[in-house]
Amino acid sequence: MALRLSGLSGRLIASYILVTFAAVILVESLVLGFQVPRLLNAARLQTEVNAAAQAYGHQLSRLYPDGVPARKVLGEPGAAADPGVARTKPDGTLIVPAITGPVDSDQAVTAVVAIAADGTVLASSAPSRYRPGRSAANELPVQASPANVIGGYIKAGNVGTRYGAVVFMVWRAHGAVLIPPTAGTSRRVALVYVQAPWSNRYISPIRALTELGHLDEAGPVLTGPYAMVLAIVPVGVLFGLLASRRLIRRVRRLESATLAVADGDYTVSLPGSGRDELGRLEANFTSMTRQLGSALEAERQRATSDARAAERARIAREVHDAISQHLFGLRMIAAGMCRADPGNQQAQALERISEEALRDMQTLLVELRPANLEGAGLTPALREICAAYTERLGVAVDADLADVTVPAPVEHALLRIAQEACANAVRHGHARRLAVSMSRCDGHVELAVRDTGTGFDPAVPSAGSGLAHIRERVAELGGTVEIDSAPGRGAALTVRVPVP
Question: Rounded to two decimals, what is the model's pTM?
Answer without folding.
Answer: 0.41
